[in-house]
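Loading example: each entry is read as two labelled lines plus one structure line.
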Amino acid sequence: MRLELVRRPRQSALFSVLSPFIALALTLIAGAIMFAFLGKNPVTALYYFFIEPLLEVWSLHELAVKAAPLILIGVGLSICYLSNNWNIGAEGQFIIGAITGSILPILFPEWQNAFVLPLMLLMGMLGGAAYASIPAFLKARFSTNEILTSLMLVYVAQLFLDWLVRGPWRNPEGFNFPESRNFHADAILPEILPASGRAHWGFAFAIIAAVLLWFVLAKTLKGFEVKVIGQSPRAGRFGGFSRARMIMFAFLVSGALAGLAGISEVSGAIGQLRPTISPGYGFTAIIVAFLGRLNPLGIVAAGLVLALSYLGGEAAQISIGVSDKVARAFQGMLLFFVLACDMLIHYRVRLVRSPVRDATAFEGVEKNA
Amino acid sequence: MNTTLDSGRAPLLQARGLTKHFGAVTACDAIDLTIAPGEIHALLGENGAGKSTFVKMLFGALEPSAGSINWQGKRVEIDNPAAARRLGIGMVFQHFSLFDALTAAENILLSLDTDEPPSSVAERAREVSNAYGLPLDPYAHVGDLSVGERQRIEIVRCLLQDPQLIILDEPTSVLTPQEADRLFETLERLRAEGRSILYISHRLEEVKRICDSATVLRQGKVVGHCDPSKETAASLARLMVGDEVEGARRQPKPVEAGRRPLLHVKNLNRPAAHPFAVTLHDIDLTVHENEILGIAGVAGNGQGELFEAISGEATQDQPSVIQLCGTEAGLLDISKRRRLGAAFVPEERLGHAAAPNLPLSLNLLLSRHQTDGRAYIGSAGFIRNSALARAAARICEAMDVRKGAADPAASSLSGGNLQKFVIGRELDRSPSVLVVNQPTWGVDAGAAARIRNALIALARSGSAVLVISQDLDELFEISDAICVMHHGHLSRPVPIEEATFEKIGLLMGGSDASEPGILEETA
């Protein structure tokens, strides 16, 4: 007896829509089981994890702070994944964007005026795009595997940031802590509603980027090009679309958005460079992109869900005393269930009987003949 | 050799009332069919008549909604293709199920359920292929092989399983007359060995020639059993479609027709892009206005490479190598060549001419976004969906494309209907130059006649048409002159008045060394 995956002749439209919700529900069930094994009451644990963070206004602001980078990176990745470019290195592009965006407030702290912030955002985007162009160029020119190159460049970026804040960019007034200078007031991305909480304009950028890219993908020739090349490269070439140009386009857009997320995070939420500036946003955004079905509007919702898992992890740490690694476990389960649900939309599982029975059937036929 | 049961021999296979519903659609409606041992049984029908659905049920790829199958007198349930193979049923599909990245031998090994080492499978494949006249290199990668060569792998793979019943789905659609003749010899040898063959085809002459009996399907129902040798092609066609099929009619070129060259290829050389590709040598050809030039040749002699070079999917080093409507186009990409008035229809419908998962309206955009940008793309690059949908509907109407939904995904259309669409998509533009590779491969008789007539009409309206085809009947029907491709060389055009099957067939085998193209190369 063995299991076989058989391609379905047609996919159910209903379940394509339901799939992310089913995946969420399965994640909650698996999470409840996990809490039970940890010796916690699953109902209260899930409450602290997923409900409590939604009950306070300041906490909703935190949700937006966490969701902003996830959505920004996620919508960029959706362009990559739809066009069959597997950019796994958004975390690195996020970090490089944060570094290039921080050049002005850290190296030129005296230069303070209204131009600083827009320039920082622009330089962050350019930095992220430039870093993403490395795996893109290698793929377009030498057909290297972009999964490996983009992923490896993440570690390069992380170590480069670590070296910067411990070495040349260390705060001269910082008592030798591995941190950069604090950004001056003109270099801080303002809060949207300063009266009620911390959510900064990065969240607005994320929403704008998502709506914009949704229009591009759904309504324009460029979006059509992305889909054709992703689904059927040869038809794309027949249509006159260049594969190499699409590789560059997808990586540059997603790199720029990851860079924007990086500089927004540093300038909006942190206020300086530190050895670690991301709890893995660049990787979690991959889950966000798929949970959102690679649709920029879906990604907004998915980004909020995964931001909640970060908040819930912190809340659960305090209120029920479990490790914040639980958040990672939830994210992992969610990705697993999303991919599994998608798989089952396209394929059905079939139990294949053991060959013994077939063999006897065959013998019967032979005797008869 | 007779189908009837009173011949005293137990039937090999009997299908009784075999029915398949897809939702509300009944693809096969209570089909009865009996195959005797050692006969070649034809299954005839137009596209969508239910032939493929029926044989998929016999092969265990689809589960019947009702009805039964008896194999050698005993009722059997065929749950999957492996079960069918164990019974002794083998099938060669029209659309091949081969892995591109694997070699021929590895593909064969995959379907064998044995622990044999690949080298011995390769040896057996070589033996069988030689024994049955189907030359095959077991170590070639499938991705690099032509359609015709892939079919040989499928046939050899099927034969290695020593089947009692072999189902062939439109096997000759990719073969030269000589190759088809060899296949018929193979089939006759198999019949002499006592094996049965279920032969799906729409080529009525060939069915008359080799089949012992025939079952004709129309709209999912059996409309007749007959002995094809006692029928005429016309009477078989009448059974299939319900009324007379009109063949393509080539009017002689009008005498006063202009002779302006619209497509001119001069001294085209193209090195092989990968180890199994064909190198193109010194190709010269000219297609004038009002003219259809046919390029014949056995699959895998460089036709695909030539198509890519002319279409601009592969560009040239020198601008003068390709001239379109008087403009040097060698350096231009496919979009720019389209803007000069050229249109292209490649061999593979799904994945090359059309993106399978996208609807027809967007597939229309695929080849027209540069030439008809104004009509389909608004300001700021926005796609005008309603204009696209109207144009797609217009093309479907003009080419009689039958579809289940208003704007279905390309992959949901049958092969013939999608082919009519991708050709109609280009004709709709009234291109000055049309280059089409295998216009009617795997397309039923009605659709093929429609496509051929459309190509003739385009040429008579003043365009230049280049048709690359492995179907000689087709080329003789529509061409004004025929060239032959062999090993990356192109022969001089033979005017249709002087062309005979024998002459072209010899050129296809590469045996005529008096052709200047070949002499120059060896010199």
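DSSP finds 15 helices and two strands in chain A.
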